[in-house]
Amino acid sequence: MTQLDLFDLDNSNRNFEDFSHENGFTYWFASDLMEFLGYENWSSFNKSINKAMTTCNSLNIPILDNFIQEYRDVDGKQHIDFRLSRFACYLTVMNSDPKKPAVAKAQAYFATLAGAVHNFIEESNKVERIVIREEISERESSLHGVVATSGITNYAYFQNAGYRGMYNKNIRDLKLLRKIKDNKSLLDYMGKDELAANLFRITQTELKIKNDNIHGQTPLEAAAHAVGKKVRETMMEISNVPPERLPVHDEIKEVKKQLKSRSKKFKQIDTDKKKEIDQHE
């Protein structure tokens, strides 16, 4: 069985590669991919596409080169669809629900194409890390805006209070423990689950400040610490692993570099495939 035969859809001998189209570049319709992955409606599947676009944008790869929106006529009705490049399919699959058997199968397929055949779960985690890290940056900016109008005088102290509540350590001490350089961001070395926990901490801190109408440096620090501590307690209850003892991962910058290489590799696959087809015509 070759790499391009691995994604046998629904064990029906319908091969993913057979559904590709050519019009200046190789593409697949998102509606076909949705069906392949076992999604029943567009609204739920569209979340995976939006996350894929976010990932693509964070890699500084042009979205319009990989996700082309169009309207297709289906049974006399116009429906939104996308032409997805192979890389766009990869990002969408990696941002889809791995609990669906077809998604897990597709993730293994694309990990094989990317050269990570034995580690498709980690491949999915890399993509998800980028999405969550991007969202954290947006939520941190939002939180900064809220505290800026709530009497904050030292944002670094406020930020440190949240970390201290969650990790029982100051930011600097946590960096020392994890052997992360002082000029680097802790968030850039966190895994998917730890990033998600910090995203929750940041959003809930903002919500608490708004709901409780908190003002002033000391009360704001106390709120950040309280929310961080509550997140810590929840994580300990679930996993019994202190957050500060979670593993350090490759820096996000390195992960982005790896994913950019996937884009180049997939383009080469399509170029080689087209040459092979042309030679047999």
Structure at a glance:
This protein is α+β, with helices and mostly antiparallel strands and 281 residues long. Helices cover 60% and strands 9% of the residues.
What is this structure's SSE topology?
Layout (H helix, E strand, L loop, with lengths): L7 E2 L4 E2 L5 E2 L3 E4 H7 L5 H17 L8 E8 L2 E8 L1 H9 L6 H13 L6 H29 L6 H13 L3 H8 L13 H20 L5 H23 L12 H29 L1
Antiparallel strand pairs: 1-2, 3-4, 4-6, 5-6
Helix pairs in contact: 2-3, 2-5, 4-5, 5-8, 5-10, 6-9, 8-9
Structural account:
- The protein is of the alpha+beta class and 281 residues long.
- The protein has two domains: 3-118, no CATH class; 123-256, no CATH class.
- Helices cover 60% and strands 9% of the residues.
- A four-stranded antiparallel beta sheet has the order 3-4-6-5. It has a two-stranded antiparallel sheet with strand order 1-2.
- The protein starts with 7 loop residues before the first strand and ends with a helix.
